[in-house]
Amino acid sequence: MALTKLNFSGNQQALVAANIPTLTNTQLPVIQSSKLPTNSVLQVITNTSVATVSNANTTAIDLITASITPKESSSLIMIKGYQGHANITVGTSNAYGALYIVDPSSNVIAGSFVGHSTANSSNVTVVGFHSPASTSSQTYKLRISTGSGGTGTNSTDGQRYTIELSEIKQ
Predict the structure, then answer these.
(1) Is residue 68 classed exposed, middle or buried when 0-12, 13-18 and 19+ CB atoms within 10 A define those classes?
(2) pLDDT surpassing 80 at residue 13
(3) Architecture of the domain delimited by 37-168
(4) Domain boundaries of the chain, sorted by first residue
């Protein structure tokens, strides 16, 4: 079925591909971030993996990292972490796991716990914000650990996990 358009006289005309201009990247306007309103998303960086990572300790280990170079020093970085399958096994007393967001200075800026007194398997999401006050590259990490000394392990079990960084204009 052909696309149609109405002209000002109300008559229908078929749109012919030959009459539709093709735009190239060089013809599209580039909007400078300084011209965008506050709370605009300036860029998004995502890193995803399915490699199995397990931790049987309350000391967190690196799960995945992502780096972003802010376009403006006043920007806020929103960090979202997702562990699609936290396979938490019971140890001596319970089954709790933790997912943390760590900033470039190794400070924990957000964390989420999941678990139950018996073995548990569920997804985990964590969101945090950081103001780096810099236009230098910033590396953020998701880290996992067991949630208590009685937990057996916290494992990704070969399922997807993701870190997403969004630069938000302030």
Answers:
(1) buried
(2) no
(3) Sandwich (2.60)
(4) 37-168
According to the model, what pLDDT value does residue 11 have?
60
| pLDDT for 143 | 96
What whole-number distance in Å separates Cα of residue 122 and Cα of residue 32? 42
CB 154 within 8 A of CB 95: no
Q: Cα dist. 89→84, 147, 155 in Å?
A: 16, 11, 9
Helix (H) or strand (E) holding 40: none
Between CA 161 and CA 84 the distance in angstroms is 6
Q: How many CB atoms lie within 10 A of CB 77?
A: 21
Look at residues 44, 43, 47 and name the one whose alpha carbon lies nearest to residue 160: 47
Predicted confidence (pLDDT) per residue in 38-83, tens digit? 999 999 999 999 999 999 999 999 999 999 999 999 999 999 999 9
